[in-house]
Amino acid sequence: MAAFAIVMMVCLVLIHGGQCKGLFNAAEALHKAKDAENGDVGPDVKAFNVLDYGAKPDGKTDSSINFRRTFEAACNFHGDAMMVIPEGEFLMGPVLFSGPCSNPSLLIIQVNGIVKAQSNMAYYRGGGDDDTDWITFQAIDGLIVSGRGTFHGQGSQVWGFNDCARKSNCVRLPATLKFIKVTDAMIRGIKSIDPKGFHIMISMSRNFRIFSVDLQAPGDSPNTDGIHMSKSDLVKISKTVIATGDDCVSMIHGSTNISIKKVICGPGHGFSIGSLGHYDDEADVSGIIVKNCSLRETDNGVRIKTYKTDSPSKASGIIFQDLIMTRVQNPIIIDQEYGNTKYSQPSKVRISDVHYINIRGTSASKVAVDLLCSASNPCQGIHLDNVNLQYAGPPNDDMPFSSNCRNARVAYHGYQSPPPCR
């Protein structure tokens, strides 16, 4: 009885208005995701095919309402259900897939076709909860998105409207896939090409798994973060390839217990915590591990960045381990003066307990370790353990290969190249 009571309490805490579906079993969800890719889900799962609801696989007819009707039918079915997007090319404007759903187990979205976004920005009014995104999943407990299909954002036609390089209060362009208030979810196998904004955005969600996903955009595409998350807990990303124009993975305020393993990043801006200190009353960031990943010709390797504002928060319990850098511009960087030329006060974000373990490869700049911390909140507990980076930049640069530290309390262990800060 005690165990049952605990399960019920967890359900009451985690479920956003829906019924309890039991504790999330990641191994079982992965098995279902693999089966869903081939449609091998068994006779007990009812399939809801977008073709049966009027969607046209011709790449020309807008099928937004047909996709929404298919989702609503699957979501409201009082049994196990799978929404099917078959092979073919489907054109779609912004759509909100909103729960809670009535399914007793995880709702499956099988994606084996190509879903293309409307390129005209006039469509993007009312698609997501904040009127900016393309495909939004909201308030769903138990979700699988799996298949061999592709989401094509047609971002190249609108990237010219992005003015974030000139304006700090710019309006971001639509994310391809947004998940908000989604619990117990798995994304597997899909591909995202040329998003208008972020490839995948996760907010106010819990217990997320992302496996074997392929995210692609040109290295100069603006603000096309691969996976961007905020106010989310227990997110695991693995065996994924991210080549894009901004952060491969970005974790801002309220990101906790995040695991990133076996990810190939590049081109892009690397793995970033932040920017932090951007908003008032930001939730802390903690429990981040980036392990067994490789970065190829990225602007940054592993980065923590904060604004010079008076918004206080904490970033702690961070591990960067077993990483391979190939001609990375800034392999190890903490920047607590990020994008703040107009502000004079030091950052109020406290950074502590950060471990860099077994980082090796090549740096495209002479300063391979750059720790620029806050004057009023010096970085505490920074550990560099076996860092082996070699210079691979322009041969005519006479500067020494070095580290730069300011307001950082650093402990060194094992081999160090570049040499430690004085």
Automatic annotation (TrEMBL):
This is Exopolygalacturonase. Transmembrane segments: none annotated. The keyword Secreted applies. Residues 1-20 form the signal peptide. It is found in: Secreted, Cell wall. GO terms for molecular function: polygalacturonase activity. Keywords: Cell wall, Cell wall biogenesis/degradation, Glycosidase, Hydrolase, Secreted, Signal. Its main location: secreted. InterPro entries: Glyco_hydro_28, Pectin_lyas_fold, Pectin_lyase_fold/virulence. Belongs to the glycosyl hydrolase 28 family. One of its GO terms (biological process) is cell wall organization. The keyword Chaperone does not apply. Pfam families: Glyco_hydro_28.
